[in-house]
Amino acid sequence: MAFIAGFGAAVPERVVGNEELAGRIGRTADWIRNVSGIEQRRYVDSETVIDLAVSAAESCLEKAGCKPSELGMIVMSCSTSPRRFPGPASQVANRLGLTETPALDLPVASAGALVAMSLAADVAASRGPVLVVAAEIMSRIVLTEPLDPSVCILFGDGAGACLIHPSRGGARVLGSVMGTDGTFSEDLRLEDSTFLMNGRSVILQASRKMPRAVSEILRRFSLAASDVGTYLMHQANQNLMDRVADAIGVERDRFFSNIARYGNTSSASMLIAASEWAENEGFRAGGRVCFTAFGAGFHWGALLAEGVAAPA
Amino acid sequence: MDKRAKIIEIIQTVSKKKIEPSADESLFDSGLIDSFALPDMLSALEEAFGLKIPDADLNPRKFDTVERIESYLEARQ
Fold this sequence. Notes:
The complex is a heterodimer. Chain A is of the alpha+beta class.
């Protein structure tokens, strides 16, 4: 058994609106909003993925009332670290004051936080509390000249975190499904410093695989899509979120969205959204939340959680 | 209605444009079908021709022109 004990997020201070990007790519701010739902995003100045990850992690641990020394493991999702190895997990652990706790890297891009949560829920009972952290600095990749208008407008920087606890939290993890299909692995990749995306292929696969994953996890618990109050999806593109909502047959506003303000922050996006959702709404006893994500690989999945009653 | 006419009808419905693309005209380059209309077009083709397109076949290039869509459907039937 595993519980979601808290979320955290950290985004850089610098806000970059569509107007600023539009001039550089010969498009309009309205065009950017129409094709993506994005109005602004955050870019780092000098921060690193480790800085962002530590801020999100500390925020999450504070909200969850958990000290770093209580952690049994850290799983870090990051695909934009400038170093091939070691990945950022060991430095994040070090910055949290941990020198013996295992800290593993999971470079699976946009689906990384979902995959990390799923794995954390599976091992929390034996390892103890698992801190999931997802941090990405996409701006240093997609702002490389020559700019690709359909790519550079989408992405932003940020970090999110989630504590998966074996015995307490606002929601119990009921289960998850994960999938990987390498058939189209060339269609979304970061090779050396070049980001390549076949948007049509990504949208096509995502618009089928995510609804299928959601349906599969719901079917496992004999639930209908309408039995889930909130969907927390990787904030890839507002049009894609709307499409997934339509495909599973629920109102679009059940999909929490903050993409207009942060853009697509790859693996960090789902947890940044979750953190913001938790601040404003949060888990309620019996209320169900479904997480879903899709990204390079292609990797995808869904995780279902149900709010539990607060201890008396 | 023959196959090609049905394909064109689907393209027009999905794109909401009464334009008849030539057989070898790229539906993407012409702006008739964008990234988000493509899944709709494929769902409509599945329904109209009574088949299920497997994920492994979801290569956008296979569905870029009326001719290619027609070839794909013929290979599947």
